Amino acid sequence: MRIKLLQNRVLLGRQSVSSTCTPLGSTMIHSLFLINSSGDIFLEKHWKSVVSRSVCDYFFEAQERATEAENVPPVIPTPHHYLLNVYRHKIFFVAVIQTEVPPLFVIEFLHRVVDTFQDYFGVCSEVVIKDNVVVVYEVLEEMLDNGFPLATESNILKELIKPPTILRTVVNTITGSTNVGDQLPTGQLSVVPWRRTGVKYTNNEAYFDVIEEIDAIIDKSGSTITAEIQGVIDACVKLTGMPDLTLSFMNPRLLDDVSFHPCVRFKRWESERILSFIPPDGNFRLLSYHVSAQNLVAIPVYVKHNISFRDSSSLGRFEITVGPKQTMGKTVEGVMVTSQMPKGVLNMSLTPSQGMHTFDPVTKLLSWDVGKINPQKLPSLKGTMSLQAGTSKPDENPTINLQFKIQQLAISGLKVNRLDMYGEKYKPFKGIKYMTKAGKFQVRT
Amino acid sequence: MEQGSLLAKISEASCNIRSVLEMAGSLQVTLKPEPSVEERELANAAADQYEQNLTVNEDLKQMLESNKDSAKLDAMKRIVGMIAKGKNASELFPAVVKNVASKNIEIKKLVYVYLMRYAEEQQDLALLSISTFQRALKDPNQLIRASALRVLSSIRVPIIVPIMMLAIKEASADLSPYVRKNAAHAIQKLYSLDPEQKEMLIEVIEKLLKDKSTLVAGSVVMAFEEVCPDRIDLIHKNYRKLCNLLVDVEEWGQVVIIHMLTRYARTQFVSPWKEDPASFSAQDISALGMNQDCVIKDGVLEEDNEKDFYESDEEQKEKDQKVKKPYAMDPDHRLLIRNTKPLLQSRNAAVVMAVAQLYWHLAPKSEAGIVSKSLVRLLRSNREVQYIVLQNIATMSIQRKGMFEPYLKSFYVRSTDPTMIKTSKLEILTNLANEANISTLLREFQTYVKSQDKQFAAATIQAIGRCATNISEVTDTCLNGLVCLLSNRDEIVVAESVVVIKKLLQTQPAHHGEIIKHMAKLLDTITVPVARASILWLIGEYCERVPKIAPDVLRKMAKSFTNEDDLVKLQILNLGAKLYLTNSKQTKLLTQYILNLGKYDQSYDIRDRTRFIRQLIVPNEKSGALSKYAKKIFLAQKPAPLLESPFKDRDRFQLGTLSHTLNTKAIGYLELSNWPEVAPDPSVRNVEVIELGKEWSVALGKAKKEKPTEKFYSDSEEEESASTTDTESESTSESEKEKNGKEEGSSMENSESSSEELSDSESESKEGSAKKKFKTTEESDSDDTEKKTKMISKKRESSGSSDSESSSTEESSSDSESESDSESDAESRKHKNAIASKRKQMAVPEKKASSKQDVSLLDLDDFNPVSTPVAVPTPAILSPSLVADLEGLSLSRSSVIDVSSPIFVPMKTHELLHRMSGKGLAAHYHFSRQPCIYGNQMVSVQVTLTNTTDQKLENIHVGERKLPAGMKMHVFNPIEFLEPEESITVSMGIDFCDSTQTASFQLCTKEDHFNVNIQPPVGELLLPVTMSEKDFKTEQGMLTGMNETSTTITVAPQNSTRLVLLEKVVKAANLGVVPSGQDNIHRFSAKTVHSGSLMLVTVELKEGSTAQLIINTEKTVIGSILLRELKPVLSQG
């Protein structure tokens, strides 16, 4: 068989102009293994001939070397295959490929798989996947054909394979009917593949959440080293029929670095700075944007810190205070301080002025759930650290990671001007919500 | 979270309900023991035990035999569960396959899943299912047709190959695009099952490539990449369509198409990178405008702006011309770059990366910058995406720092980043370091060095070392900083610092005695072998700088020798040897002691080294001649190690590929070819002119590989005939053509761009028709001479003459179609034709020049003489000049047949305004020898303006003109501003009225105005024409008497060869070469630009290095001037 193949290749060689490619005939994603954190392969799916699960040994090897899950290299070469993996929800999704393929293609697809599972089952965990193994299998079957992505829009998938609901599960078991749709998803053929037809709602509503996350590095003295805003507009649109929406902004110039959901008409945005789109049904991310100009990024909180280790003594001082800075008059809520203490710290005895704090002596992680910041009475956490006797003081003070939320504020100043609907006659209910959060917000001490 | 747990509870509850129901159901139907226990076992993923497996399989079989769908379904679900867990369920095959015709669609689906997994193992049984699929392939429901095809093609059973082939063929003509999409997928499957089907599959691919549906595009390109990535000729006619459809294709297809088009473009267009800095500014402008109009102008603007090329070195010419050539971007090239740009906004990281690599590999350097912002945005994504993107940025940032410099801070490292992300970011930061930002960076690095992640801290020290070597200003600062780190408490940090310091000191052998002393002290404390070895090496290498310490160190080391690591032992030996040579008084005994220790070491490496060193340095009677040179050997000046980025050579791989990530060639990696020297003919992408397209693809094949071409040709002919007999495919291609045309006009996405194109082509065609007016009757005559080369003449006809003519050479069907087409269509077609004809024109005169010598050449290497200069005996001189022609050809050439493109375009520039007299504004001009785009009586002049001041020059324009009567001038558009050190090339048209009178005008800036003159050499007042020898003689016969001037000249001996003579003459005047039957007579023909009068030049070489120079023309004045100018040209060496 093998020889015959080779002969064919020789014969074909005459025709091919440059014979750089060999018809190995394996496309994109060959197989997928799902591996949990304890190293069990709990699901495998092959789109072509079966690849033995022993291929995962190379992965386990790499995992061992990396010590931490997130340090496992996303691309692992093995003698005959390449393993591309993503790590989410404590599960490794390992794709096996055989030939050259853009790695991002596979990685992005694997993330899409995770998103789809999440969308289907609410959560993506080992238990849920095992419980719904048939649906998972059917979905995977639809998502890839011969290793090439076929249907990745969750709207379409849900038409092909209905997500499990309690009612349907019960009914199906009694009547023997199925989860599988027998109609071709209409979206697949239309010019708006992301939307299914025949959508009907009694309450027509469209909600938009403008959510901004601040990524920042603040140095010891409190000055900003780098700060960026990552914004998204998440939408929940439940509208009957084929609505055509336009969303305009008071200050669209802020959005110079954006990426869109495929539904957004790019030309219109280029020329008028208006978002014009036929929305998918349900929840989706309309756009994400990036504001990197540092002067535009207001830093809403500050951290005063005094962390000191002394060489001689086995005690260290620890004191931090969190206060509001540029909050545009809004309250800072949900404040959470975490810090990875150096290895030398044995324990900490601290007293917060408000909220709860914990210190895990094993992982050396300090976390302090502050809650709301009251500008009149700033929250603080003070106390001492006990250090391992005999060792010298750590080189570096710990970095403080901050989380917070500010409701009803988009820190970049982005404001939606209006939302209009065309194409349908009813009056929808519209709502817009703003929120600012901390992204990767670090304070160096 | 809450929702999740709720859901979990609910599903748990529902599970219970279900299992109860199932139990009830199964009790009713079958009598089997405890199914629910079994099921729970499966659900809990208990360890599979063989015996249990058997019993499970037994009852599964029973369930499958049952006549209740629910039981079957349940069984199938459990089987799928087994497959998912990787358990073997193959023995159930007969039981399962019976259910393939089940009415229940879910059972059916699960059976499909099972079939795809096990059909390969149970081929005979699998055949039982085939008829079901064959029936389903005819189902009225497209979903069923599609899924039947999917499953059928996924069953890897070689016997059904013919069935699959048939199914694919039928499905590829299905009315439903969804089915056609699945057909495209099936192609790859069949191909991997049986590569012998390749040729038939290529036919299907070819058909599907013509598909207009965005649904199909991605899948078929995928199949193309899989089956026949080398058949680039299949893409030609679909190129524009693919570019235009791209935005609407689903995202995965976009990635595949973009990668394929990147490869395509690298074979079809010339490099946009070779332009000199002067034209960069113009490119920038076009980048802003991003429309074709602009690009075309650029093409004109950018011609030949090298100044002193000609004067420099004649012998270098050939090379230079290849390297530096004026550049005009092919509109199709631009189309691709423009149409991919919106995709940078995609939410799919793979798409963004694909566009980024396209820009990196295809766009002019000045435009590639727009991708950086999008790439930086991806850094917010998941860790895996970040990792890949950072790697690619690392490679980019080595070559083009500027692209990512503005985003420096985005690469700052956070303590929460995974180590691999940290190191990639560090790599980029190091690449981006320069004099301006180094101080900020070093401060940032200081933070990193203190990181708790020691691996990362060590990497940072390496990075500091690299910055120190790359930026000499900070070397000392870095060195001091690293020395400070030596007192760090962490050993890894210290060790790394020692290693880096060692390297730095080596690159900088200045006086660093202090540092060495400091490091010598470290030997007492530090234990890391590499660091100890590095210190010892340093002391040994620079032992003369630390004469007191070195022997002491050796003494200490001698004591600890036996306990050291091998690496350190070697360096101790080394140190001993060096000290012995420089300071033998103090160290002789010590060294001998160490050598004795080494002699009995456990490691043979060390024993070897000891023996070697002893022989070399210790004088004894046996020691050979080498020991005299021992000092030279040991203390030779050593080259400093290079501190280089590990990403330095990564760019040999296409960015964004797996191979790039791994830095090794992955299986199936398709090499990105280098830019061709000369672009293959662009008209192959014209969808309208099928005839041409076919011919050209053939020519292309020839050019690519110089192997027997007949075979290839006949192959494609077969294909051609096949496609014509296949009426269906023909009709689709026809309709597609129509659609394509309309698309340009109407498609929402492209309306903007196409309108540009349209207006553009309109102006184009106007010019074209204007030119046609001054066409003479020579055309038919010239055709006579070329009867042998029918193919070419046909092309010339179709391209060179007007539109209607061209269509007449085609089949009548396409003719009628073109007539029925809309106005806009015809217009755009004209445009394309015009472009095509231009390209052809460049080539044709070249052929004419050589056709007399070697007619067979024409068939063999067709229109691509330059790419194969070695294999083909084309006059060597003419080839490079043809390169110049190809490049120099602006996009706005007329399509008149008799005026050929110039044989040679001199690079010689003339000074218009010296920078001293122009207060910093310098201007040069040269004659591009192109028909002027501003009027057909004008001579086109290229003016290069350079700002040599350090300020912006604003509003550069032409002011007052002082022209002799009758003369006309078309000035360039005012230039808004010119940045310091930049230059721009603009084009002007001047109608000199066939005289050598001076055109005077003022060149103005915002503040000043300067008087300047342009005086044309008489040779530039001509346009070359092509004619046969016979015509030449006829014309000459009519231009005798008064119209003839002649003289006898002495010809320098080196000028008497044909090639040199031709070169000299065409250099001096813009003449066309007439093929000559006699070796000693050379004829040239041209016409004057203004009046179009013929100018015939004959050089007749006589014996005794004399020659008769005859010029026949109505314009006797110019004739005599030309005679005078040609005289010295020929007589001087």
UniProtKB/TrEMBL annotation, chain A:
Keyword vocabulary terms for this entry: Cytoplasmic vesicle, Golgi apparatus, Membrane, Protein transport, Transport
Superkingdom, natural source: Eukaryota
Membrane topology: Peripheral membrane protein
One of the record's GO cellular component terms: cytoplasmic vesicle membrane
A Pfam match: Clat_adaptor_s
Ranges in coiled-coil conformation: none
Cell compartment(s), UniProt: Golgi apparatus; Cytoplasmic vesicle membrane
Protein transport listed as a keyword: yes
Family: Belongs to the adaptor complexes medium subunit family.
Full protein name: AP-3 complex subunit mu-2
Species for this entry: Chrysemys picta bellii
